[in-house]
Amino acid sequence: MRWIHAAGRGLLVLVVVLTGYVASGARADEGSAGGRGPLTLATAGDLTGYLGSVLEGWNRTHPDEKVTLVELPDSADETHAQMTTDLRAGERSRFDVLNIDVSWTSEFAAHGWIRPLARDRFPLDTFLPPVVDTATYDEQLYAVPYVTNAGLLLYRRDILTKEGVDPPRTWAELEKQAKTIAPKYGLDGYAGQFLPYEGLTVNAAEAVYSAGGSILGDEGERVTVNSMAARDGIDFLARGVREGWIPKRALTYKEEESKQAFEDGRLLFLRNWPYAYVGASAKGSPVSGKIGAVPLPGPDGPGTSVLGGSNLAVSTHTEHPDSAARLLAYLSGERVQRQVLTRGALPPVRADLYEDPELVREFPYLPTLRASVLTAAPRPKSPRYDQVSLVVQAVVHDAMAGRDTPEAAVRRLARELAAVSSR
Q1: CA distances from 191 to 98, 175, 286, 349 (A)
Q2: What 8-state DSSP symbol labels residue 381?
Q3: How many CB atoms sit inside 10 A of residue 291's CB?
Q4: H or E element at residue 275
Q5: Which of 58, 92, 162, 356 has its CA 20 to 30 A from that of 237?
Q6: From CA 383, how far away is CA 160, in angstroms rounded?
């Protein structure tokens, strides 16, 4: 899933337009012969208005496998809670297909809530390679990538051009420009998503990864955060607030608040998902035509983004696993994936779309986004990911607010994550 609009307001949004495309070569998963029939698709609230026509398209061409949409709350946390409550009901579960954030795949698979899938049934070799990793657990495919995402650094191209400088490639360049250039134009320097919620987990992981560190290993069994690299990543964020080039108000920002600050012309630099670029470039935006996007910076060059996006999974207790798998193949087909980008402005998972000249003209950030996705890394994999995320966001927010030093924050992270892993 993309944490936006899940990548806005940290929401999962399933945005597709089905136009009569029928997946070719669909066949039953092993042990699922004859498992066809109507389906229920669960997703977060549809903010786009596309889902009705999407399901009408599928239902017209698959009259015996009609899909009923179940919209859960807009909040990703509430969506997660309702999905897990339903899945724990076992055979009484009412969901067949689930649109899940990429970070939930390991948790759902480890609990036995979603079923393993046959790799050769889906066009995995056409996807950007890193996105497939988000759909696996213990080397087994448990979901099909549907939408991907990677963080970008948005910047005011007009201002940097006037100053005669290139957009930053390193943390030092970002700090210097945020400190010296932004105040000249009455702007805040840099912001991301720093409220203690899932967005801060993403921002913190990107800082740690960019510095060469990690948080967990071995599918969440090993805590790896107690390192100098992790300290350097957290220090980058905490130092920004302490020195003022990250405004204190950014400690209250989620995706949408930070996007609005950039669109309103109050920020020189913004870390956000590509949807923020689309919004800031739209007609009527005060900064339309004045912005650019580059990969996130790191200590010595381009940094590492966290992979966002959503995966589509099949409930263990569905009575129609073959139909569910056919729907997943349908949604990951080239035609639907193209519609995801052109009509939904969401990053598709198919690699060839990022090099289509017509699409690049329409979405000029695609080459940058492709580079960012190819070097991106998933959030820490863990069967207890929800608890891991709560620990990371709480500890890092305390460090950014000055309540803990980066050194103390790393020690606290190691201690609290070890307690989560041992439960």
Answers
A1: 32, 12, 18, 27
A2: P
A3: 21
A4: helix 274-281
A5: 162
A6: 44
CA–CA dist 351, 131 (Å, integer): 10
Residue 244 token pair? 């003022």
**Sheet strands (E) in 115-236:** 136-137, 140-141, 144-150, 152-156, 188-191, 216-217, 222-223
**75-79, 250-254, 356-360 — which is least confidently predicted?**
75-79
H or E element at residue 43: strand 39-43
Residue type, 119: R
The greatest distance separating any two alpha carbons of the chain, rounded to the nearest whole angstrom, comes to 68
Identify the pLDDT of residue 53: 66
188-224 tens-digit pLDDT: 999 999 999 999 999 999 999 999 999 999 988 999 9
CA angle, corner 295, sides to 294 and 296, nearest 5?
A: 115
Cα–Cα distance for residue pair 47/259, rounded to 1 Å: 17
Residue of 146, 150, 125 lying closest to 135 (CA atoms): 146
- What domains lie within the chain, and their CATH numbers? 39-149+307-374 (3.40.190.10), 150-306+380-421 (3.40.190.10)
pLDDT at 341: 87
The alpha carbon dihedral of 399, 402, 405, 406 has a sign of positive
* pLDDT tens string 294-315: 999 999 999 999 999 999 999 9
pLDDT recorded at residue 52: 66
Give the start-end residues of each E strand in 278-375. 291-295, 307-314
Q: Is the dihedral of CA 270, 375, 141, 20 positive or negative?
A: positive
DSSP conformational letter for 297: B
Q: What pLDDT is stored for residue 31 in this prediction?
A: 38
- Token duo for residue 55: 């399901």
Indicate left, alpha or beta for 164 from its phi (over 0: left) and psi (-120 to 50: alpha). left
